[in-house]
Specification:
The chain is mostly helical. It has 4 helices and 2 strands; from the N terminus they run αααββα. The chain has a two-stranded antiparallel sheet with strand order 1-2. The longest helix is centred in the last third of the chain and has 28 residues. The N terminus is likely disordered.
Length: 95
């Protein structure tokens, strides 16, 4: 069985290629010029493209996904706490 050697690219290299794409270079020209796969470049563009928030903060897609995951976790914890409060809070018996 042959041992396939996969190129590993550092984060700065990936970000620089994404920057080239964001500044107008086509994906096909980047792929040809740097000898990387189309799939890898597309994945890096998704991963390292940024979004600027209303307060000027810059977030990557990776950071947004982490925030979404954390938000879902906090919402679930909040729901559990609300249910616990409903169970353990005595209700008044005024009729």
């Amino acid at each position: 069985m042959s041992n396939q050697h996969r190129n590993r690219y550092d984060e700065d290299f990936k970000k620089s290629l994404v920057s080239l794409y964001q500044n107008g270079k086509t994906q096909s020209s980047i792929v040809k010029e740097y000898g990387i796969s189309q799939t890898a470049l597309t994945r890096w563009i998704k991963q390292y493209s940024t979004v600027e928030t209303e307060d000027g903060e810059i977030l990557t897609a990776k950071q947004i996904k982490e925030l979404q995951r954390r938000n879902a976790q906090l919402e679930e914890e909040n729901l559990i706490l609300k249910k616990a409060i409903a169970i353990f809070t005595p209700h008044s018996q005024k009729d």
